[in-house]
Amino acid sequence: MYNANSVDLSKYDNVFCDSLQALEWAYQNGLPRSATIKSSAPALLWDKNPNIQNIEARWTISEVEKFQSTIQKLTKDIFDESMKVVGVERELALAISQATYRFQKTLYKVACLEESDFTEPRLFIYVDGMTGPAGNMMNSPWDQLLADNPLFSMVKYTLKNDEWNMLTTEGVSYWKRFKVAGYETIIYRLAIKLMKNLPKWVFKKEVFMPNENELNIEIASSLVRHGVRISKIELGLLPEKKNIVLDKIFAEIYESVSPIMLKRVKKWVTPSAVEITMLQFKRHIVEQFKQFKLLAKTWEKTLINNDTIKQAVLVNALGNTKGCALAYVCRKNNIPMLSSQHGVTVEISKAHGILHVILGNSIADVMFAYNSKIIEVEEKSYFDNAIHYSVGMPFRLISMKHSKTMDKSAPPIVYISTNLYHMGFSLSSETDYGNARIEQKLILEVLRKLPYKVRYKTYPEDNRRYADIDPVLKDVREADNIELFSKKIDMRYLVSEHSILVTTCATSTLGWLVMSGKPTVFINQKNNNPLTDEAYKSLSKGIFVFDADEQDFHKNISDFLSQPIDKIERLWQEKEGAREEMLREYFSAYNGGAGKRSAKIILNEYF
Fold first, then answer.
1. Helix count (H) and strand count (E) of the chain?
2. Across 342-349, average pLDDT
3. What is the percentage of the chain residues whose pLDDT exceeds 90?
4. Which of 120-124, 244-248, 261-265, 480-484 is predicted with the least confidence, judged by mean pLDDT?
């Protein structure tokens, strides 16, 4: 790292920076205000300063779509080549393929660089500050990518008066939390505490739970009533990676997969970036290879195999190296690995095809699904490894339909923003800046013009992407009729406070809203996590769907939301028949009992 005293900032006229505060600090320490600033941060690009350039400008929507559309084949080819290496187990090949998928974010960033960035003076202002559980994600890897440029320098800036909060239930009443969580959660929590202190010989069956979600808690609660021991397990401290020696297998894996990656790299980056990108790719694969080996050893110690007890592992969303290592250990010890659906998304999202390699069904032996649609999608995945069961949604989601409006003082309409920035490659074909402008236009052309009070609920991100406050919030604050709700509280606790629910993007948020039974308005954006064509047809009949790319979209949705609330509710009731069919097909195959249904399958088929 460098500091302002060791680098003469006045010498630089090309700077990489993603923080307004850091940039102002640099100006005060000698950086010329005429310098060209390369940034992807919406806050820096917002005022259209001619000296601040969007480093992602080379990424047109069509270019991003080309980049995204080839990822599914890339992960398949990397997996296949890894599996050809003698001695490579499926789980390791999958971990290598998943690592390749994650590396696409780095490749996306490299593709933003020009030839001159590798030979001419460049300054990178690295930002440090408060972050979420994933660590510091506020910087692009320019220091790694431009390290061989002798005229490259980096300075580190630590944010002042810095604050960052994560998801909380602070301010949510115990009664409301109980209503959402249900009695199954209380049974589960009590069982975990009590069973921990009982000797293992008391039980004939045991389920290990390394993490939780709503359905897994409900399944565990049902298993407890059948005398199954539920054991929370956590990984111990991992040994040092330096203790893992790269063996012949790694050399053969890299030799097999590197030509595939090299071809892709040459297609997307400038010539001077090819060598350093491949070096970064190799380092990334080395890291994941070592991580897999370490995790497998640690899981082996954590999962205490007992021949006198029938055992299973119940997981959620572990489509990563940690999950691959756990699956490997489970298979070696003949312990079934069971997983459950992580929200309604895959079955309704057109963009999720590129994520098949990291979905739970790629590693689990069994998948408990909310509906038949997700099973249909996952069974077509090249990486599918699971037996699928349709069991319905957990009680927490089913019970949302009892969320009647309780707080008459709250705005009748709530807009639940899903505008989450990604610092680069994501499921959106738009850049972060592009998505920010789309969000701003919705605020200015729709929400601000409604004859009602509107709550703008921000996305409760745990992991901080940019140092600055989202610039779209300035327009929210300046609107007389919009109330900003920026507390990191999950929307499930707020549904009961509003009459009309509005959101966008095919995310799991939609499931919570639709299951409430309240009028739900969905904005479909073709360039940002859109609905599949089939889901679009079904959802258009069951809820209110507006196409953001249609002419007069802003006027149409504004006119609709400006109607009397009771009229919107009557129009909603008219869709009830179509909505019931939509719910069965795309949300929950059953109207309750998911935990008991899953538990019965586990007891009959795996215990």
1. 22, 17
2. 91
3. 81
4. 244-248
Specify which residues 482 forms β-bridges with: 454
Phi, psi of 479 (to 5 degrees): -80, 130
Letter for the amino acid at 48?
K
Quickly state the pLDDT bin for 173 (edges 50, 70, 90).
confident
Task: State the total domains in the chain.
Answer: 2
| Sheet strands side by side (includes 454-457) | 482-485, 454-457, 413-416, 500-504, 520-524, 544-547
Q: What angle do CA 380, 311, 363 make, to 5 degrees?
A: 25
- Residue 368 · residue 338 · CB < 8 Å: yes
Determine how many CB atoms are found less than 10 A away from the CB of residue 238.
12
Three-state DSSP class for 292?
helix
Same domain, 352 and 453: no
In a domain, 39, yes or no: no
Closest CA to 198 of 226, 221, 227: 227
Determine contact, residues 498/376, Cβ cutoff 8 Å. Answer: no
- Considering the domain boundaries, does residue 134 fall inside one? no
Which residues on neighbouring strands pair with residue 340, listed in sequence order?
316, 368
Indicate the length of the chain as a whole number.
Answer: 607
Locate all alpha helices (DSSP H) within 333-417, ordered by sequence.
Answer: 372-379, 395-398
Question: CA 291 to CA 284: how far, in whole Å?
Answer: 10
Q: Please name which of 67, 426, 431 lies closest in space to residue 268, comparing C-alpha atoms.
A: 67
Q: Token digits for 593? A: 């009992």
The answer to whether 221 and 186 are in contact (CB under 8 A) is no
Residues 404 and 387 in one domain: no
pLDDT per residue as tens digits for the range 516-530: 999 999 999 999 999
Under 8 Å between Cβ of 527 and 520: no
Domain-embedded: residue 452: yes
Write down the pLDDT at residue 400.
83
pLDDT, average across residues 425-443: 95
The residue type found at 574 is E
**Closest-CA residue to 465 (of 529, 419, 526, 525):** 419
- Taking 70 as the threshold, does the pLDDT of residue 76 lie above it? yes
- Judgement on whether residues 435 and 494 belong to the same structural domain of the protein: yes
- What is this structure's pTM? 0.93
* Lowest-confidence region among 19-28, 64-73, 228-237, 568-577: 228-237
What are 341's two structure tokens? 């659906």
Tokens standing for 91? 């789980």
Asked if 580 and 558 count as a contact pair (C-beta separation under 8 A), the reply is: no
Instruction: Give residue 520's domain range.
Output: 399-586
Q: How is residue 213 annotated by DSSP?
A: -
**Helix or strand run (H / E) with residue 36:** strand 36-39
- At residue 403 the predicted structure's pLDDT band, cuts being 50, 70 and 90, is low
pLDDT score recorded for residue 406: 60
Three-state secondary structure call for residue 560: helix
Sign of the CA dihedral running 131, 132, 138, 140: positive
Alpha-carbon gap, residue 540 to 533, rounded angstroms: 11
Model confidence pLDDT, tens digit, residues 131-147: 999 899 999 999 999 99
Closest CA to 421 of 23, 22, 41, 20: 41
Is 1's pLDDT higher than 70? no
